[in-house]
Amino acid sequence: MGDTPLIFNGRQTIEGVEDARQRLLDALAAGPLLTVECSAVEDADAAFLQLLVAASLSARSAGGRLALLGAATGPVADRIAAAGLTQALSTQEPGERP
Protein backbone atom coordinates (compact mmCIF):
# COMPACT_ATOMS: atom_id res chain seq x y z
CA MET A 1 0.00 0.00 0.00
CA GLY A 2 1.04 3.58 -0.21
CA ASP A 3 3.73 4.58 2.26
CA THR A 4 1.65 7.36 3.78
CA PRO A 5 -2.00 6.69 4.51
CA LEU A 6 -4.63 9.17 3.42
CA ILE A 7 -6.23 10.16 6.73
CA PHE A 8 -9.90 10.99 7.11
CA ASN A 9 -11.42 12.10 10.40
CA GLY A 10 -14.52 13.73 11.84
CA ARG A 11 -17.71 13.64 9.80
CA GLN A 12 -17.38 12.26 6.28
CA THR A 13 -20.75 13.10 4.79
CA ILE A 14 -22.27 14.66 1.69
CA GLU A 15 -21.31 18.13 2.94
CA GLY A 16 -17.60 17.38 2.53
CA VAL A 17 -17.79 14.91 -0.31
CA GLU A 18 -16.08 17.15 -2.88
CA ASP A 19 -13.02 17.62 -0.66
CA ALA A 20 -12.86 13.88 0.05
CA ARG A 21 -13.24 13.13 -3.66
CA GLN A 22 -10.37 15.44 -4.59
CA ARG A 23 -8.11 13.98 -1.89
CA LEU A 24 -8.79 10.45 -3.17
CA LEU A 25 -8.20 11.48 -6.80
CA ASP A 26 -4.90 13.14 -5.85
CA ALA A 27 -3.80 10.03 -3.95
CA LEU A 28 -4.74 7.75 -6.85
CA ALA A 29 -2.81 9.98 -9.26
CA ALA A 30 0.30 9.26 -7.17
CA GLY A 31 -0.13 5.50 -7.64
CA PRO A 32 -2.66 2.67 -7.48
CA LEU A 33 -1.67 1.37 -4.04
CA LEU A 34 -3.73 3.42 -1.62
CA THR A 35 -4.16 3.15 2.14
CA VAL A 36 -7.01 5.12 3.69
CA GLU A 37 -7.01 5.62 7.48
CA CYS A 38 -10.54 5.86 8.92
CA SER A 39 -10.10 5.21 12.65
CA ALA A 40 -10.88 8.85 13.54
CA VAL A 41 -14.01 9.08 11.38
CA GLU A 42 -16.94 9.84 13.69
CA ASP A 43 -19.69 9.55 11.06
CA ALA A 44 -19.86 8.48 7.43
CA ASP A 45 -22.71 8.43 4.97
CA ALA A 46 -23.47 6.77 1.65
CA ALA A 47 -21.70 9.53 -0.29
CA PHE A 48 -18.41 8.78 1.48
CA LEU A 49 -18.83 5.03 1.00
CA GLN A 50 -19.55 5.58 -2.68
CA LEU A 51 -16.28 7.50 -2.99
CA LEU A 52 -14.38 4.69 -1.28
CA VAL A 53 -15.89 2.07 -3.59
CA ALA A 54 -15.12 4.19 -6.67
CA ALA A 55 -11.54 4.74 -5.48
CA SER A 56 -11.16 1.01 -4.81
CA LEU A 57 -12.39 0.16 -8.31
CA SER A 58 -10.05 2.75 -9.84
CA ALA A 59 -7.10 1.38 -7.90
CA ARG A 60 -7.91 -2.18 -8.99
CA SER A 61 -8.30 -1.21 -12.63
CA ALA A 62 -4.81 0.32 -12.45
CA GLY A 63 -3.37 -2.87 -10.94
CA GLY A 64 -3.43 -1.66 -7.36
CA ARG A 65 -5.59 -1.83 -4.29
CA LEU A 66 -7.28 0.37 -1.71
CA ALA A 67 -7.07 -0.78 1.90
CA LEU A 68 -9.00 0.81 4.74
CA LEU A 69 -7.14 1.05 8.03
CA GLY A 70 -9.06 1.48 11.25
CA ALA A 71 -12.37 0.58 9.62
CA ALA A 72 -12.81 -2.93 11.01
CA THR A 73 -14.90 -1.50 13.86
CA GLY A 74 -16.69 1.78 14.46
CA PRO A 75 -18.88 4.04 12.34
CA VAL A 76 -17.26 3.29 8.99
CA ALA A 77 -17.44 -0.47 9.58
CA ASP A 78 -21.07 -0.16 10.63
CA ARG A 79 -21.93 1.75 7.45
CA ILE A 80 -19.97 -0.66 5.25
CA ALA A 81 -21.83 -3.63 6.74
CA ALA A 82 -25.24 -1.92 6.58
CA ALA A 83 -24.68 -1.09 2.91
CA GLY A 84 -23.55 -4.65 2.10
CA LEU A 85 -20.11 -3.48 0.98
CA THR A 86 -17.90 -5.78 3.05
CA GLN A 87 -16.77 -7.63 -0.08
CA ALA A 88 -16.17 -4.42 -2.04
CA LEU A 89 -14.07 -2.67 0.60
CA SER A 90 -11.06 -4.32 2.23
CA THR A 91 -10.55 -3.38 5.88
CA GLN A 92 -7.56 -4.01 8.06
CA GLU A 93 -6.19 -2.79 11.35
CA PRO A 94 -2.87 -0.91 11.59
CA GLY A 95 0.00 -3.37 11.54
CA GLU A 96 -1.99 -6.06 9.71
CA ARG A 97 -0.61 -7.36 6.44
CA PRO A 98 -2.90 -7.10 3.40
Overview of the structural elements:
The protein is α/β, with parallel strands linked by helices and 98 residues long. It has a single domain, classed as Transcription Regulator spoIIAA (2-Layer Sandwich), CATH 3.30.750. Helices cover 39% and strands 28% of the residues. The chain contains three helices and four strands, in the order E-H-E-H-E-H-E. The chain has a four-stranded parallel β-sheet with strand order 1-2-3-4. Helix 3 (75-82) links the parallel strand 3 and strand 4. Helix 1 packs parallel to helix 2. It is globular, with a radius of gyration of 12 Å. The termini are close together. The model has no long low-confidence stretch (mean pLDDT 89).
Q: Classify the beta-strand content into a percent band.
A: 25-35%
- Contiguous uncertain segments of 5+ residues: none
Q: Count of DSSP E strands? A: 4
User: In DSSP terms, counting alpha (H) and pi (I) runs of 4 or more, how many helices?
Assistant: 3
Major sheet characteristics: 4 strands, parallel
Biggest sheet: strands side by side, in what order?
1-2-3-4
Question: How many separate domains make up the residues?
Answer: 1
CATH class, anyone? Alpha Beta
What is shown here, in short?
The chain has 98 residues and is α/β, with parallel strands linked by helices.
Task: Describe how the helices and strands are arranged.
Elements: E1 6-12, H1 17-30, E2 33-44, H2 46-61, E3 65-69, H3 75-82, E4 90-92
Parallel strand pairs: 1-2, 2-3, 3-4
Helix pairs in contact: 1-2
